[in-house]
Amino acid sequence: QVQLVESGGGLVQAGGSLRLSCVASRSILSINAMGWYRQAPGKQRELVAGITSGGRTNYADSVKGRFTISRDLSKNTVYLQMNSLKPDDTAVYSCNAHYAIVAADYWGQGTQVTVSS
Known about the structure:
The structure is a single chain. The protein is mainly beta. The protein is 0% helix and 54% strand. The strands form 2 sheets. Strands 2, 4, 5, 6, 9, 10 and 11 form a 7-stranded mixed beta sheet that branches. The chain has a 4-stranded antiparallel beta sheet with strand order 1-3-8-7, with no helix packed on it. Strand 7 (67-72) and strand 8 form a beta hairpin.
C-alpha cells in the first residue's frame, strides 16, 4: 500500500494563495489516479482536483480557473496550487490515491486550509 503525507495548509486571507503538497511513498505512475478532496463543516467531502497516471486533470466547477493540480514524478509528489482563495474554500484537504483495478483508496492525514474574510 501507499502512504500519503500532505502539507502546506494554513491560514490565509481571502484573495491569497496556498500550495498544498502530497508526497507518496511510491511512484505516482503506479497509481491510477491522485486527487485532492476537501470537506468543510456541514458539507460532504468533494473532489477538488484529480490527475491520472497519464496526466489528465479534472477540477470541480467551483475551483476551475483558480486551482491547479500538478505533479513532480521525481519527487513522488502531487501539488495543488490554490489562488484567489475564498472563505468557502475553508476545509480539510486530503490527498487520495486510487487503484482502479482493486477499487482501493488510500488517504493522507489531511491538512487544514482556513480562508478569512
